[in-house]
UniProtKB/TrEMBL annotation:
GO MF annotation: an example: unfolded protein binding
Protein name: Uncharacterized protein
GO terms under cellular component: endoplasmic reticulum membrane
GO biological process, one term: protein folding
Pfam families given in the database record: Chs7
Transmembrane segments: 66-86, 98-120, 127-152, 164-187, 207-234, 240-260, 272-293
Keywords, sorted A to Z: Membrane, Transmembrane, Transmembrane helix
Coiled coil: none
Length: 306
Protein backbone atom coordinates (compact mmCIF):
# COMPACT_ATOMS: atom_id res chain seq x y z
CA UNK A 1 0.00 0.00 0.00
CA UNK A 2 1.37 3.40 -0.97
CA UNK A 3 2.11 5.92 1.74
CA UNK A 4 2.02 9.69 1.48
CA UNK A 5 5.16 10.79 -0.34
CA UNK A 6 5.64 7.55 -2.31
CA UNK A 7 6.70 7.98 -5.94
CA UNK A 8 6.68 4.25 -6.74
CA UNK A 9 3.36 4.23 -8.62
CA UNK A 10 4.13 7.46 -10.45
CA UNK A 11 7.57 6.26 -11.55
CA UNK A 12 6.09 2.99 -12.79
CA UNK A 13 2.87 4.14 -14.43
CA UNK A 14 3.72 7.63 -15.73
CA UNK A 15 6.29 7.72 -18.56
CA UNK A 16 8.82 10.57 -18.48
CA UNK A 17 8.00 11.50 -14.87
CA UNK A 18 10.97 13.78 -14.25
CA UNK A 19 11.60 13.31 -10.53
CA UNK A 20 12.13 9.57 -10.99
CA UNK A 21 15.63 10.44 -12.22
CA UNK A 22 16.51 11.20 -8.60
CA UNK A 23 15.30 7.85 -7.27
CA UNK A 24 16.99 5.88 -10.05
CA UNK A 25 20.34 7.23 -8.90
CA UNK A 26 19.45 6.51 -5.28
CA UNK A 27 18.64 2.88 -6.05
CA UNK A 28 21.93 2.44 -7.92
CA UNK A 29 23.79 3.23 -4.72
CA UNK A 30 21.46 1.70 -2.12
CA UNK A 31 19.66 -1.32 -3.62
CA UNK A 32 20.34 -1.93 -7.30
CA UNK A 33 18.35 -5.18 -7.20
CA UNK A 34 15.13 -3.15 -7.18
CA UNK A 35 15.80 -2.05 -10.77
CA UNK A 36 14.06 -4.47 -13.12
CA UNK A 37 12.75 -4.60 -16.69
CA UNK A 38 13.40 -1.47 -18.73
CA UNK A 39 15.37 0.07 -15.85
CA UNK A 40 17.85 -2.77 -15.55
CA UNK A 41 20.20 -1.58 -18.30
CA UNK A 42 21.48 1.91 -17.47
CA UNK A 43 22.69 2.55 -21.03
CA UNK A 44 19.17 2.34 -22.49
CA UNK A 45 16.95 2.91 -19.43
CA UNK A 46 14.14 5.44 -20.00
CA UNK A 47 12.96 8.02 -17.49
CA UNK A 48 11.25 6.21 -14.62
CA UNK A 49 11.88 3.36 -12.23
CA UNK A 50 10.74 0.01 -13.64
CA UNK A 51 8.26 1.77 -15.97
CA UNK A 52 5.65 -0.27 -17.79
CA UNK A 53 6.40 1.87 -20.84
CA UNK A 54 9.17 4.37 -21.46
CA UNK A 55 11.11 6.01 -24.27
CA UNK A 56 14.63 4.51 -24.46
CA UNK A 57 17.71 6.68 -24.15
CA UNK A 58 19.05 8.21 -27.36
CA UNK A 59 21.08 5.26 -28.57
CA UNK A 60 21.16 2.88 -31.54
CA UNK A 61 18.69 4.89 -33.61
CA UNK A 62 16.41 6.06 -30.78
CA UNK A 63 15.41 9.72 -31.05
CA UNK A 64 14.49 9.96 -27.39
CA UNK A 65 11.41 11.95 -26.42
CA UNK A 66 11.48 13.79 -29.74
CA UNK A 67 7.88 15.07 -29.64
CA UNK A 68 8.38 16.77 -26.28
CA UNK A 69 11.73 18.13 -27.42
CA UNK A 70 9.98 19.87 -30.31
CA UNK A 71 7.14 21.07 -28.05
CA UNK A 72 9.62 22.57 -25.59
CA UNK A 73 11.55 24.25 -28.40
CA UNK A 74 8.46 25.85 -29.92
CA UNK A 75 7.20 26.86 -26.48
CA UNK A 76 10.45 28.78 -25.88
CA UNK A 77 9.69 31.06 -28.84
CA UNK A 78 6.12 31.59 -27.64
CA UNK A 79 7.25 32.55 -24.13
CA UNK A 80 9.95 34.88 -25.47
CA UNK A 81 7.17 36.70 -27.35
CA UNK A 82 5.13 36.99 -24.13
CA UNK A 83 8.12 38.45 -22.30
CA UNK A 84 8.56 41.03 -25.08
CA UNK A 85 4.91 42.05 -25.19
CA UNK A 86 4.68 42.23 -21.40
CA UNK A 87 7.64 44.60 -21.28
CA UNK A 88 5.93 46.97 -23.72
CA UNK A 89 2.99 47.59 -21.35
CA UNK A 90 4.79 50.24 -19.30
CA UNK A 91 1.87 51.21 -17.06
CA UNK A 92 0.50 47.72 -16.42
CA UNK A 93 0.23 46.58 -12.81
CA UNK A 94 2.55 43.67 -12.01
CA UNK A 95 4.52 44.00 -15.25
CA UNK A 96 7.90 43.29 -13.62
CA UNK A 97 6.63 40.40 -11.54
CA UNK A 98 4.80 38.80 -14.46
CA UNK A 99 7.92 39.00 -16.63
CA UNK A 100 9.84 37.17 -13.90
CA UNK A 101 7.18 34.45 -13.96
CA UNK A 102 7.48 34.13 -17.75
CA UNK A 103 11.29 34.05 -17.52
CA UNK A 104 11.15 31.24 -14.98
CA UNK A 105 8.73 29.28 -17.14
CA UNK A 106 11.10 29.82 -20.06
CA UNK A 107 13.97 28.41 -17.95
CA UNK A 108 11.99 25.28 -17.06
CA UNK A 109 11.54 24.37 -20.74
CA UNK A 110 15.19 23.53 -21.63
CA UNK A 111 15.55 21.70 -18.32
CA UNK A 112 12.41 19.70 -19.10
CA UNK A 113 13.79 19.00 -22.55
CA UNK A 114 17.01 17.56 -21.09
CA UNK A 115 15.63 15.75 -18.03
CA UNK A 116 12.84 13.98 -19.94
CA UNK A 117 14.46 13.77 -23.37
CA UNK A 118 16.46 10.58 -22.66
CA UNK A 119 19.72 12.30 -23.60
CA UNK A 120 21.72 11.51 -20.47
CA UNK A 121 22.39 8.11 -18.94
CA UNK A 122 20.04 7.20 -16.10
CA UNK A 123 21.81 7.33 -12.75
CA UNK A 124 24.49 9.77 -13.94
CA UNK A 125 25.48 12.64 -11.65
CA UNK A 126 24.81 15.17 -14.41
CA UNK A 127 21.21 14.01 -14.82
CA UNK A 128 20.62 14.17 -11.05
CA UNK A 129 21.99 17.71 -10.80
CA UNK A 130 19.96 18.96 -13.77
CA UNK A 131 16.81 17.28 -12.43
CA UNK A 132 17.36 18.86 -9.01
CA UNK A 133 17.72 22.32 -10.57
CA UNK A 134 14.60 21.63 -12.63
CA UNK A 135 12.68 20.76 -9.45
CA UNK A 136 13.89 23.98 -7.82
CA UNK A 137 12.75 26.01 -10.81
CA UNK A 138 9.29 24.38 -10.81
CA UNK A 139 8.71 25.05 -7.10
CA UNK A 140 9.90 28.63 -7.54
CA UNK A 141 7.75 29.08 -10.65
CA UNK A 142 4.57 28.37 -8.72
CA UNK A 143 5.62 30.73 -5.94
CA UNK A 144 6.02 33.51 -8.52
CA UNK A 145 2.59 32.62 -9.91
CA UNK A 146 1.01 33.04 -6.47
CA UNK A 147 3.11 36.15 -5.82
CA UNK A 148 1.68 37.73 -8.98
CA UNK A 149 -1.80 37.32 -7.55
CA UNK A 150 -0.69 38.91 -4.25
CA UNK A 151 0.87 41.82 -6.16
CA UNK A 152 -2.39 42.25 -8.11
CA UNK A 153 -4.21 42.99 -4.84
CA UNK A 154 -1.95 46.07 -4.52
CA UNK A 155 -1.11 45.35 -0.87
CA UNK A 156 2.31 46.65 -1.93
CA UNK A 157 3.15 48.79 -4.93
CA UNK A 158 4.20 46.61 -7.84
CA UNK A 159 7.68 46.95 -9.32
CA UNK A 160 9.07 48.70 -6.23
CA UNK A 161 11.57 47.42 -3.67
CA UNK A 162 8.72 46.69 -1.23
CA UNK A 163 7.40 44.21 -3.79
CA UNK A 164 10.58 42.93 -5.46
CA UNK A 165 12.58 42.25 -2.25
CA UNK A 166 10.12 39.82 -0.58
CA UNK A 167 9.30 38.41 -4.02
CA UNK A 168 12.99 37.63 -4.58
CA UNK A 169 13.67 36.37 -1.04
CA UNK A 170 10.86 33.82 -1.16
CA UNK A 171 11.85 32.83 -4.71
CA UNK A 172 15.41 32.15 -3.58
CA UNK A 173 14.17 30.21 -0.55
CA UNK A 174 11.95 27.94 -2.66
CA UNK A 175 14.70 27.36 -5.19
CA UNK A 176 17.45 26.59 -2.68
CA UNK A 177 15.27 24.37 -0.46
CA UNK A 178 13.80 22.33 -3.31
CA UNK A 179 17.11 21.96 -5.14
CA UNK A 180 18.89 20.82 -1.97
CA UNK A 181 16.17 18.30 -1.09
CA UNK A 182 16.26 16.95 -4.66
CA UNK A 183 20.04 16.58 -4.54
CA UNK A 184 19.75 14.85 -1.18
CA UNK A 185 17.28 12.36 -2.65
CA UNK A 186 19.46 11.72 -5.68
CA UNK A 187 22.78 11.37 -3.87
CA UNK A 188 21.40 10.02 -0.54
CA UNK A 189 23.36 12.48 1.57
CA UNK A 190 21.18 12.05 4.67
CA UNK A 191 18.91 9.33 6.03
CA UNK A 192 16.22 11.79 7.19
CA UNK A 193 15.50 13.54 3.87
CA UNK A 194 17.37 11.61 1.21
CA UNK A 195 17.02 7.87 1.60
CA UNK A 196 13.77 6.07 0.93
CA UNK A 197 12.79 3.38 3.42
CA UNK A 198 12.13 0.80 2.11
CA UNK A 199 14.05 1.62 -1.09
CA UNK A 200 11.35 0.29 -3.46
CA UNK A 201 8.74 2.72 -2.10
CA UNK A 202 10.67 5.67 -3.57
CA UNK A 203 9.47 7.81 -0.69
CA UNK A 204 10.32 11.46 -0.04
CA UNK A 205 7.64 13.53 1.64
CA UNK A 206 9.47 16.90 1.24
CA UNK A 207 10.07 16.28 -2.48
CA UNK A 208 6.47 15.12 -2.97
CA UNK A 209 5.09 18.21 -1.23
CA UNK A 210 7.27 20.67 -3.15
CA UNK A 211 6.87 19.13 -6.61
CA UNK A 212 3.31 17.73 -6.45
CA UNK A 213 1.26 19.32 -3.65
CA UNK A 214 2.66 22.85 -3.63
CA UNK A 215 2.10 23.56 -7.38
CA UNK A 216 -1.55 22.54 -7.07
CA UNK A 217 -2.11 24.69 -3.97
CA UNK A 218 -0.36 27.70 -5.52
CA UNK A 219 -2.38 27.40 -8.73
CA UNK A 220 -5.69 27.16 -6.84
CA UNK A 221 -4.84 30.18 -4.65
CA UNK A 222 -3.77 32.17 -7.71
CA UNK A 223 -6.99 31.55 -9.61
CA UNK A 224 -9.08 32.20 -6.50
CA UNK A 225 -7.41 35.55 -5.79
CA UNK A 226 -7.52 36.67 -9.43
CA UNK A 227 -11.20 35.81 -9.81
CA UNK A 228 -11.93 37.80 -6.64
CA UNK A 229 -10.02 40.80 -8.02
CA UNK A 230 -11.58 40.67 -11.48
CA UNK A 231 -15.17 40.01 -10.37
CA UNK A 232 -15.26 41.57 -6.90
CA UNK A 233 -13.09 44.65 -7.35
CA UNK A 234 -12.88 45.43 -11.08
CA UNK A 235 -16.35 44.08 -11.92
CA UNK A 236 -15.09 42.76 -15.25
CA UNK A 237 -16.36 39.68 -17.07
CA UNK A 238 -14.25 39.20 -20.18
CA UNK A 239 -10.90 38.60 -18.39
CA UNK A 240 -12.60 35.94 -16.27
CA UNK A 241 -13.01 33.77 -19.37
CA UNK A 242 -9.28 33.91 -20.00
CA UNK A 243 -8.58 32.80 -16.43
CA UNK A 244 -11.13 30.00 -16.77
CA UNK A 245 -9.55 28.90 -20.05
CA UNK A 246 -6.09 28.99 -18.44
CA UNK A 247 -7.32 26.85 -15.54
CA UNK A 248 -8.99 24.34 -17.86
CA UNK A 249 -5.88 24.05 -20.04
CA UNK A 250 -3.70 23.50 -16.97
CA UNK A 251 -5.99 20.79 -15.61
CA UNK A 252 -6.14 19.09 -19.01
CA UNK A 253 -2.33 19.13 -19.22
CA UNK A 254 -2.09 17.32 -15.89
CA UNK A 255 -4.78 14.80 -16.81
CA UNK A 256 -2.99 14.08 -20.08
CA UNK A 257 0.37 13.73 -18.35
CA UNK A 258 -0.78 11.40 -15.60
CA UNK A 259 -3.56 9.44 -17.32
CA UNK A 260 -2.83 9.34 -21.05
CA UNK A 261 0.97 9.20 -21.22
CA UNK A 262 1.14 5.45 -20.73
CA UNK A 263 -1.59 4.83 -23.33
CA UNK A 264 0.16 7.05 -25.91
CA UNK A 265 3.52 5.45 -25.11
CA UNK A 266 2.21 1.93 -25.71
CA UNK A 267 0.26 2.93 -28.82
CA UNK A 268 3.38 4.49 -30.35
CA UNK A 269 5.61 1.53 -29.48
CA UNK A 270 7.64 3.66 -27.07
CA UNK A 271 8.31 6.44 -29.60
CA UNK A 272 6.37 9.26 -27.89
CA UNK A 273 4.26 9.73 -24.77
CA UNK A 274 1.78 12.31 -23.52
CA UNK A 275 4.40 14.73 -22.22
CA UNK A 276 4.45 16.74 -25.46
CA UNK A 277 0.69 17.31 -25.29
CA UNK A 278 1.05 18.37 -21.65
CA UNK A 279 3.79 20.84 -22.61
CA UNK A 280 1.65 22.36 -25.36
CA UNK A 281 -1.34 22.69 -23.02
CA UNK A 282 0.77 24.22 -20.24
CA UNK A 283 2.22 26.79 -22.64
CA UNK A 284 -1.28 27.55 -23.93
CA UNK A 285 -2.35 28.07 -20.29
CA UNK A 286 0.50 30.56 -19.79
CA UNK A 287 -0.57 32.40 -22.96
CA UNK A 288 -4.14 32.60 -21.64
CA UNK A 289 -2.81 34.07 -18.37
CA UNK A 290 -1.06 36.78 -20.37
CA UNK A 291 -4.28 37.73 -22.18
CA UNK A 292 -6.20 37.72 -18.88
CA UNK A 293 -3.61 40.06 -17.33
CA UNK A 294 -3.64 42.21 -20.46
CA UNK A 295 -7.40 42.55 -20.17
CA UNK A 296 -7.27 44.04 -16.65
CA UNK A 297 -4.31 46.40 -17.09
CA UNK A 298 -3.55 49.55 -19.04
CA UNK A 299 -0.83 49.81 -21.67
CA UNK A 300 0.12 53.44 -21.01
CA UNK A 301 -0.21 56.00 -18.24
CA UNK A 302 -3.12 57.94 -19.71
CA UNK A 303 -5.96 55.70 -18.48
CA UNK A 304 -4.48 53.75 -15.62
CA UNK A 305 -7.63 52.61 -13.81
CA UNK A 306 -6.20 49.49 -12.17
Amino acid sequence: MNKFGDFQTLCTQVPSYTWCNLFYRQLLTTDESVLQGLSQNTTTAPVGVNPVCGIPKVNDGSLGNIANILACGLSCFVVLSLIHFTGRRKAAVGRVELRIFFCLYLLTLPFQLITTGSFLTQGSSALVVLTAIHAGLVATLFWTLLANAIVATQVVEDGTLSSIIPFSIFSAAFFVATTYISLDVGFSWTNVIGKSNPPQSLNSIPLFVLTSIWPGIAALLYFGIMLYIVLGILNEIRPVWYYVIAAILFVLSQLDYFLLSKIICKASSMKVDGSFIATVLETASVVALYFAWRGITEEDWDNDVY
